[in-house]
Design brief:
This protein has about 475 residues and is of the alpha+beta class. Helix content is about 60%, strand content about 10%. It is found in: Cell membrane.
Length: about 475
């Protein structure tokens, strides 16, 4: 009967309940009208308007890279932290939802003591046990939406944590691909550097022979030897950069450097996609970027917290009941001894001084305005990053085309000067300058190939592919 009365009263009050505070509406960025169209910089033949692939790294058609990215998404420490944050947010959401249910508490205690003589019947034992057992049940009537708004805020926090984890996955997939690309580019640059040194070694030997027969001077030999040694000095630096990329790759995949599979460093060709890269449009970008989703969900949570703070302006009503028994032993308590019970509502209301509650409302409103500004800023940064990546990629391709033409011309010039030198019709300065120019052009082109890989990966990172794989 007691429980039925509590539930009947709670149901009646719940029907009359209303959630105070503003209802959340999905924000529209100030740049939305122009942000959802085609990208300004997507006018290069190197990109297409096809939808972005979630597992974009598979476009490189490299099974080793596919395995490394899968390892990183499963074992990277940053991903594990992000997953733990999701679990924490979900636990908070469960706690908020639990406030909708009646809260129960069972208490029991026993003590042995001596009572004053005046509190005992004549000839009664003054020393004995006192045992008390009680049950308390309470239920907060969510008349003004404090509990429902708290749940709404916790739900927004959970969705934001999930979006943050997706953002971490985007970064991890891009960083893993970048580290693998840097290692491959380093190996390719090493091959070029060693080939250049090999060619210069041949020139050193040829100059030595010409000097021996009086057709070259010691200065000629010293100059070509210096150029050879300068290019040899590049090799240790490139090797160190390549090793650093492999060590970074091990960390990203959750391994110690010694545990990285040897196959991860076998590639010696720069990583590159030769087909047009699918980039989609602005509307798809805004839906796909997890940092935008996280900012929007934080805004939703902060909006709900205005309602939580506003509810403190109104009375908080709790329905409660308790029952218990006290006796001189457990037999008295559970053997049909006297039972006590209480039933009634409890009202808490901070009145008339409501300034603390109004201050909390003002703070919550300020937090919401800050979250809205953060959302707008996140949208603008996403567009900026994507447009910058598109432009940089297109310009890098143009730069490589020019560098490739320069390399071809310098190689042709070096061959001509070598032939002239064999015939004794070339000045030593002309010959040395041709060799130096060719060596620099070859090395610069190899570096630019690695730069193309970095530009492609930066573009995929800005497009936020990878989190849904």
């Amino acid at each position: 009967m007691i429980l039925r009365n509590i539930l009947t009263a709670a149901s009646a009050l719940a029907l009359a309940a209303c959630a105070v505070g503003p209802n959340y509406a999905e924000p529209k960025s100030a740049s939305a009208p122009v942000a959802t169209g085609p990208f300004v910089s997507a006018n290069s033949p190197a990109v297409s308007l096809a939808p972005v692939a979630g597992d974009w790294w598979r476009l490189y058609d490299d099974p080793v890279l596919d395995g490394l990215v899968a390892d990183a998404l499963a074992s990277n420490t940053d991903v594990r932290v992000a997953v733990a944050n999701i679990a924490r947010a979900r636990a908070s959401l469960r706690g908020a939802r639990a406030d909708r249910l009646p809260q129960g508490e069972i208490g029991a205690g026993a003590n042995y003591g001596r009572s004053p003589e005046g509190q005992r019947l004549p000839n009664a034992d003054r020393e004995d046990w006192a045992v008390d057992v009680g049950l308390n049940v309470s239920y907060e009537v969510d008349l003004f939406g404090r509990v429902s708004r708290s749940i709404e805020a916790a739900r927004g926090d959970t969705a934001a944590a999930e979006a943050n984890a997706d953002a971490v996955r985007v970064i991890v997939a891009a960083d893993t691909t970048q580290a693998y690309a840097d290692a491959a580019s380093g190996a390719a640059r090493l091959d070029v550097a060693r080939r250049i040194v090999g060619l210069l070694d041949q020139q050193v030997k040829l100059t030595q022979r010409r000097k021996d027969v009086g057709m070259a001077t010691g200065l000629d030999l010293a100059r070509i030897t210096t150029l050879r040694d300068q290019r040899s000095a590049d090799i240790p630096s490139i090797e160190a950069e390549r090793q650093a990329a492999l060590f970074r790759l091990a960390t990203l995949t959750g391994r110690a450097p010694a545990a990285l599979p040897a196959i991860a460093g076998d590639r010696n060709i720069s990583l590159e996609i030769t087909d047009p890269i699918p980039v989609g449009d602005g509307a798809a970008l805004l839906k796909r970027r997890p940092d935008i989703r996280a900012a929007e969900r934080r805004l939703a949570a902060d909006t709900a917290r205005i309602g939580v703070a506003t509810a403190d302006l109104y009375p908080r009503i709790t329905l409660g009941g308790s029952a218990g028994s006290t006796g001189s032993g457990f037999g008295d308590v559970f053997g049909g001894g006297p039972i006590r019970w209480l039933l009634g509502p409890l009202l808490n209301w901070a009145f008339p001084n409501q300034e603390p509650a109004r201050a909390r409302i003002a703070a919550a409103e300020a937090d919401t305005q800050a979250s809205l500004a953060e959302f707008d800023g996140t949208v603008l940064r996403a567009l900026e990053e994507t447009e910058t990546a598109l432009s940089s990629y297109a310009r890098s391709l143009e730069q490589r085309q020019a560098l490739r033409a320069a390399r071809d011309q310098s190689e042709r010039a070096a061959r001509i000067v070598r032939a002239k030198r064999e015939e004794g019709a070339s000045e030593s300065f002309e010959w040395l300058d041709a060799e130096r120019t060719f060596a620099e052009a070859e090395a610069t082109l190899a570096e630019q190939d690695g730069q193309i890989s970095r530009r492609q990966i930066a573009l995929f990172r800005a497009l936020a592919g990878g989190w849904s794989s």
